[in-house]
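Reagents: none. Just compute today. Arf-GAP with coiled-coil, ANK repeat and PH domain-containing protein.
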Amino acid sequence: MKVTVDFEECLKDSPRFRAALEEVEGDVTELELKLDKLVKLCIAMIDTGKAFCTANKQFMNGIRDLAQYSCKDVLVETSLTKFSDTLQEMINYHNILFDQTQRSIKAQLQTFVKEDIRKFKDAKKQFEKVSEEKENALVKNAQVQRNKQHEVEEATNILTATRKCFRHIALDYVLQINVLQSKRRAEILKSMLSFMYAHLAFFHQGYDLFSELEPYMKDLGAQLDQLAVDAAKEKRDMEQKHSTIQQKDYSSDDTKLEYNVDAANGIVMEGYLFKRASNAFKTWNRRWFSIQNNQLVYQKKFKDNPTVVVEDLRLCTVKHCEDIERRFCFEVVSPTKSCMLQADSEKLRQAWIKAVQTSIATAYREKGDESEKQEKKSSPSAGSLEPGSETKEKLLKGESALQRVQCIPGNAACCDCGLADPRWASINLGITLCIECSGIHRSLGVHFSKVRSLTLDSWEPELLKLMCELGNDVINRIYEAKLEKVGVKKPQHGSQRQEKEAYIRAKYVERKFVEKQPASVSLPESGTKGLPQSKEEKRHTVAVSSDEARRESLFCPDELDSLFSYFDTSSKLRSSNDSGIQQSVDDSREHLASTISANSLYEPEGDKQEPSVFCDSKQPSPGLQLYRAAFEKNLPDMAEALAHGAEVNWVNLEENKATPLIQAVRGGSLVTCEFLLQNGANVNIRDMKGRGPLHHATVLGHTGQVCLFLKRGANQHATDEDGKDPLSIAVEAANADIVTLLRLARMNEEMRESEGLYGQPGDEIYQDIFRDFSQMASNNPEKLNRFQQSDSQKS
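Predicted 3D structure written out:
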């Protein structure tokens, strides 16, 4: 090591030593200024870089917004999404670079200035102080008179001590100088080397990232070239078509331009007509009319919901109208009202009249065929929702999670798209999914679907048993009950992701395909059972249903009043002068009388209910259905109740405010409890006696349930109205297994609190014991029934 200041010169305190000190001190002062300036520049660079990253992130979010806006163009959406993801990665790399710069330049050099240079300054102050004391001692020693022996000795002793102290501090000062001069080289180069390596890593990461993107960019460039060629060709084709249409002569038959027929979408005819309003002024308004689904409807704007003029074409007739001043008019007459319409020409009027007459004839034929089909669909073959006992026994023997779950009926294919060999599952729904559908389920949120891998994740035994109790067939019977009625096509594994996402959201979030419970049934509220209704209550129920039907109807209020009066009064039908109307009403009157109620008139065809359902006052509410099914260990019924909107923490006021989870405890099923917990049941809700699920499981001696509730965060310190917590109840009952579990859980909780391990599961021994109890409760429950067996023997 090169010595900046010589130690021997330090002892001599020679002019050469003083000159060397002066040079070193000046150098250190200048070094401190340079380092301070460099640190400030580094801070400014980092702040500017972070501002750049913020602006870059906003730009990247703009690209993502543009990608979402272009969702209908797969190429644009995919490309912009890939580019925005790449830019996001570059922003992350920039942030890493700035963090490394802050550590290597700012933090490291600041530490050197604050610690090492400060030590140098402190040593310098001590050296200057002792130097001054030494000079004073020399002057005093030189000034003392020889005849004053006492003063001579005192001055000599002070000088000797001062010189000794000076040499000691001077040596320390020189050592500090030499160490500083040696260390500053290493610190500066070390920080700069770290900074340069950070840049090297940044550019390498960026290069690798864009190297992966480069093939896609080249492919996109080739597609753009082809798109330019296709666009030029399309432009020529459109120009040619424009020229051809422009040269065509429509003067001979211009009516074809005034209406459209779209048989693929069930539109018999559509086009503009003038409609006379039913107000006092009898104004005429131009509207877009169409004949579809055996109805005559019109719209003011394309996005507006169509207004129904004729609900059922079988009940109407059409005729020319020559008794008004306006030309080309015709009238569509129903049993309740008439609608005056005007076409733009005589040919158009004839075309519309013919279309309406044809639709009336077609409606009679199609209605007969549809009624036969619906009767066949309404009586499916009765099949068990649960797998056979032999299958369940086989499942509980030692196969892997994937093998056990895929053995359940329907689980060998994805529940939502049908792709074979699914490797993912929704644990709260009890279904198997492919990887793409599982990603869509994750986006719904855990309150709708909790996704887990059948091959990568570890499975608790009670959770695995839950998966084996349900399955794709059971859940699809519930969540796809109305799929054929509403006319929605289930996506396949090759369908677009947007189509799958829309279907899954409609299926599980909006529950559009779940068979709705009767709307007019007096369903029990929270805590009430379904009781027979009085006549006044029934009358009120029907009135409410009628009002709700009116609000949801496409008819205006006047039209609704007319329809209600029509179905309530038969004299109007007899007094009709039009033979066509009388004939159509007579043919369909018996059919209408047996099928039409206040609600079914105005609901879509897929949502119509049979009249007998409305009279069933014993139909329970979804909450009560869940409550009863939990006790009966009927998981398909529980899943159906949740699909109908049952509150998982529903409270039965007539049974001590018990919840479905407490009923599941009473029923003695571990799987039922796990199903409710996975669907959001609160493990700490207590009944009127202050007893929660953990209390009830302890009282009943259900060891497996106690183990499950403790794992799910049950509060074991809660006391009932008698002031007893679960542990004291288990001790009184002398249930050794439950006492062991409760004490272990309490010890583990106290240990975690004392060590500050909040949120941690506990030590390995505690986890192993609970894991063993879970295995026994799920696979060998008879081993945990010692307590119940001994009690029965005693009795």
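The chain has four domains: 7-235, 267-372, 389-509, 622-794.
Action item: order primers for follow-up constructs.
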